[in-house]
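Data card: per-record layout.
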Amino acid sequence: MLAMTKPRRAWVAALMSLLQPGLGHLYAGSPRAALIAYAVNLCGFGLFLASWLLLPVAPWNILLGLVAFPLLYLAIAAHAGIVARMRGENYRLRAYNRWYVYAGFYTVCGILFYPVVQNWLQQDLEAFRIPSGGMDPTLRIGDYLYVAKWQSARVEVAHESVVVFESVEEPGLKIVQRIVGLPGDTIAIAAGALLRNGRTVTEPYAARTEHPRSESAEFRAKMRVWQMSFISAPDTAQYAPDLGEWGPLVVPNGSFFALGDNRNASYDSRYYGFIPLDNVIGLPIVIYLSLDHRATGSPLRKVRWERIGHRVQ
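The structure for this 313-residue chain is written out next.
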């Protein structure tokens, strides 16, 4: 019995490949190329994410991923079309040239790929929006950033690390600030300068606004209440902390001390105290979008293009 023949259409192969990389090659009679195309697509997607999250040069890290990955996707589809055209008009149908095989390939690839990516995005990567100016100029109102939540990121916190953590005052509230003190450190502010273990810390990222929050007697009192239990000074009776002078404080085990980069407009550890290290959620990686909601005109005018792709440091 002669095998049934049926021409392979290049446009059908390309369209099927766009639906699922590798599917067009299977239709065109090349199952090995189908598996290779699927693997190449996975690698391309991985490189796309890596360029977005890890490359230090902005905005090329974003542009590289946004341009290179779609080109790779189209190249796979084009190759499937070429393979189909090479099969000619008298292509002999194989056992795998059945609709249910195509459906199975699509389903299996979806089961292998999309749930893994979705699970990774949900558990190890999270998107955040900056709603306030406490971390300005490092993070500005309207910045959208990705935060790495994998375990290695949480344990790699160090001095000057920008971290996202759960509030000690309002469970469930997520805060982003910079770590300036770790367990065993003695920290203080003297004449507006941060001291850690008796040495002045250079802070090129820090900014100060004209109207400090702690000019309010309420906030000065809030600072004093909790700091009295940790102050490292012989005479605490006259202790009256303010933004320009406070401490020295000793950071207890299992905790850290965090400050916002916009020092006079940040509600941080100076007011609510030390944060347990277990409260750390993750480390911000990259700004993937930044919008100035005060800008007028078209939506594109609201985009701060120069901030897109910047690593958070």
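Known properties of this structure: The chain has two domains: 10-122, 125-311. The chain has a mean pLDDT of 84.

See the next section for split statistics.
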